[in-house]
Amino acid sequence: MDFKDLPKAYDSKDVEAYIYKRWEENGFFNPDKLPERNQQGAPFCISMPPPNVTGVLHLGHTLENALMDTMVRFERMRGKKAVIVPGTDHAAIATQAKVEKMLIADGMEYPREELGREKLLEKIREFAEGSKATMINQIRKIGTSCDWSRLAYTFDEERNTAVNELFTRMYNDGLIYRGYRVVNWTVKGQSTCSDDEIEYVDRKAKFYTFKYSKDFPIVIATTRPETKLGDTAVAVHPNDDRYKQFIGQTFSVDVGASKPLNIKVIADEEVDPEFGTGALGVTPAHSAVDFAMYEKQKAKGDPIDIIPVIGEDGRMTAEAGEAYQGLTAVEAREKFVQYLKDNDLLIKEEEIDQSVGTSDRYGDVIEAIPKTQWWLDMNKEIPGRGKSLRDLMRDAVTTGLDGDKEKLVTITPDRFTKLYLDRVENLRDWCLSRQIWWGHRIPVWYKGEEIHVGNTAPEGEGWEQDPDTLDTWFSSGSWTFSTLGWPNETLDLNTFHPTQWMQMGYEILYLWLMRMVLMSTYLFNDIPFKDAYIHGILRDKEGKKFSKSSGNGIDPIEVVDEYGSDALRISLLFGISAGNDSRYYTEKIENGRNFTNKLWNISRFILTNIKQESSSARRTTNNDSSEGEVRSSKYEIRTLSDKWILSRLEEVTASVTKKLETYQFSPAGEELRDFTWNDLADWYLEIAKVEKGKQEILMHILPTILKLWHPFMPFVTEFIWSQFNQDQLIVAPWPQSQDDVPRTMDQEVNSFETLRSLITDLRRLRAEQGIEAAKFVEYSIVADTYQHQLIEENHEVIKSLTRAESINIEETIAEGWATDVSGTMTIGLNLAGAIDVEAEKIKLQKEIEELAPYIKSTEAKLENADFTSKAPEHVVNSMKDKLDEAKKKQQALKERMKSL
User: Fold this and answer.
1) Where are the alpha helices (DSSP H) in 323-363?
2) Considering all CA atoms of the chain, what is the largest pairwise distance in Å, rounded to the nearest integer?
3) CB atoms within 10 A of CB 403
4) Which residues contact 57 (CB under 8 A, 6 or more apart)?
5) What is the pLDDT of residue 615?
6) How far apart are CA 433 and CA 373, in angstroms?
7) In this predicted model, what pLDDT tens digit does every residue of 511-521 receive, in sequence order?
């Protein structure tokens, strides 16, 4: 190709679809089809966090894809057998809730009752498949280099087999059991949900202090008086002298329930004597904490009763008493409080702040009710292992499994390790059952008293499968190994598991990361991945979360269509840090597009200005070679600028590599951008217009920066690469230190920095004097012998970059010249003829006069004590800063006037 035919502007719409198709056709997303050097390299696998099939990709998904793809492209170029295993998530409760809402919006009042299980599942499946197809196309458009031949779905046949096998093994090991326990219940969703699926909402609540009856000796307090109709005990600290005498006694109280309550006073060391009255009304049926007390008492052989007074419909049961049966919890609360008032039992009613648990999908307040469900025991010892699941989850991030540091998950940033461990220590048994229909059906069949657990239904008639489904995080927990073929012994499983890297938002640290660690440590006595990178939430410019309801939702595909995928990727990656929220706004994407164009223009300049004899040796080698690009294998270092740019290139290459190895995405990209735009474009390329004969060096630099940029900006770099290479950049080798670059160039680099500072100061001096950019000027410099020689050797470069007609080395600066310093040098600018002095004086005087009234009025305001005492502190501080800035500007203008 004639490089002069390269278009002046880069158009992403003309390039990206073509480039992605070319990558796919060459098979380089598939690790089995990578060049031989990759086949011999270490495996590097990322399991894509599967996006929920509840809609389309949002900006958060795009950030995650940019993170994953940057890592896998980096490691692929470094010679590893690298792969992203893509997939989507059926997102059980989230997807069913969304489809039910859609059906209700279309006029259906009760979708489950009106459609039945199979027809509703058909509706959900249709929605999920359409969403899944859309998402896959969107992931392609972002440029994620997934191996689509390994595409997985959490609800496909292979994953269903894996989930059933995992459940069966855990059941056979005695870890999964069926038990009657208190669960989190969403009345609106008519299903259980886990602790990690509850969102807490702050609100005002009433706190009631009362006695069950006038002769009951202990006062209690609660925000849920309606549940007191099901109390069976009062718990106190065993050493609380106020209540010691009552421990072990049972009191019969009539609170209007179906029958009098038998309230037993029990001792429990978990009770805080300093909190409230120091006594807790125990409602085993409607509190997980109280249920734990119920179990503790049962284990002691001193049981208390359990009385469910709130049903699955959120209304009071017959056990609550005829006066309350059928009332909502709120209605029952009001009625019971009135009963307490009427009988002089209410001691105090006060308003408090309360954090209320709500369903993250249905939005209703969670009720704690007792149900028979399937549970995973977190504390029982695993047969033959000597440890519980909790123990394994702890070891995986502290000592390594069995003390093996090769079996240690490293979490970045480290502060999330402590949060993880705190959660592990407080884990309760995991309720696995869900009463929704969309999801993996629990692999249990019943026939009378018989029970069968397995991958398939038992033979014979009369068996009925459990109607419940599994918590969606049970299947998600198996993601890293089920996508690699487990339970079969596959080559992928042996090659890529444990996987190397995982990224996720901190909001699913407990929901997903912990579950994946649990499953892998249980099955393989190994970890699911070596490193977990935790990122924050993407927010808008004001710090708000993106959402349709907030009116700030952004479709990433619309952004790609307007600005290009590369621009979007770097706008999301720049400015992020591990574990912290980041912001996205229009200026960032515009800056991303501007840099994409800058990289294109830099490359076009280099390619169109090299001599044809330099590019005529268009040579390519196969992808197994360490040489896969047009580049002079040798180049001559002729000038100070050559030494400097090659030294900077080496420094940046090493630094960017190290930063990517440690997941410092933004610092790596920002350093590379500074080198590309500032060092290369603004300095070396400008110098190359003066100093000729740099073709070989430029054709060493260009391929190197394209390689460094490729993980961040794959499309534009691949397209530029294709202009002078037949091989593809996606599998080109990552830049290494070049042996032919001198390593002892500190003095030369320092000399160039001196030269660069001098040029910068000369430019600043002329700018301060208001001299037109196009005008040629005369400079004078006072310098020592070394500086003199440096200036002489680079005389033409300095003249060109400062638009100087002449530069003279003098012992002193002539009188009347504008002067300044540059390091230890004194620099002068001849103003004669350079500016219209009288016109400049008039302009300066006008600016000085315009500032005066602002300074006067602001000083007056700040001297007014009445104003400063009433105005907000930030307003006063802002005024002070602006006043200081105005005074400095005024002084600078006066000094400029004086110099004229």
Assistant:
1) 329-342
2) 111
3) 9
4) 51, 135, 138, 139, 142, 556, 557
5) 44
6) 6
7) 899 999 999 99
The rounded distance, in Å, linking the Cα atoms of 94 and 436 is 10
Name the E strands within 704-835.
Answer: 777-782, 804-809, 818-822, 825-829
Query: pLDDT band at 4, cuts 50/70/90?
Result: low
Residue 525's alpha-carbon distances to 387, 400, 404, in angstroms, are 11, 10, 11
* C-alpha angle 735-737-740 in degrees, rounded to nearest 5: 120
Segment 356-361 shows an average pLDDT of: 91
Contact 196, 511 (CB under 8 A): yes
Three-state SS string over 18-53 comes to HHHHHHHHHCCCCHHHCCHHHHCCCEEEEECCCCEC
pLDDT at 685: 97
Contact (CB, 8 A) for 123 and 115: yes
**Which has the closest alpha carbon to 704: 638, 780, 606?**
606
Identify the residue whose tokens are 């939430």.
Answer: 537
User: Taking residues 539-546, what's their average pLDDT?
Assistant: 87
What secondary structure letter does DSSP report for 374? E
Bond before 487 cis per omega within 30 degrees: yes
Amino acid found at 86: P
Within 10 A of 203 (CB to CB), how many other CB atoms are there? 11
**DSSP E strands, 377-477:** 410-412, 430-431, 433-434, 444-447, 450-453, 464-465, 469-470
Residue 357 CA to residue 27 CA, distance in Å, equals: 49
pTM for the whole structure: 0.87
- Amino acid (one-letter) located at 219: V
Q: Identify the three-state secondary structure at position 19.
A: helix
Omega before residue 498 within 30° of 0, cis: yes
The gap from C-alpha 674 to its chain's centroid, in whole angstroms, comes to 25
Tens of pLDDT, residue by residue over 625-655, are: 333 344 445 788 999 999 999 999 999 999 9
Cα–Cα distance, 314 to 326 (Å, whole number):
9
Listed range (471-480, 583-592, 638-647, 831-840) with the worst mean pLDDT = 831-840
307-316 pLDDT tens trace: 999 999 999 9
Buried b (16+ CB within 10 A) or exposed e, 130-154: ebbeebbebbbbbbbbbbeebbbbb
Q: What DSSP designation does 150 have?
A: G
Under the banding of pLDDT at 50, 70 and 90, the label for residue 580 is: very high
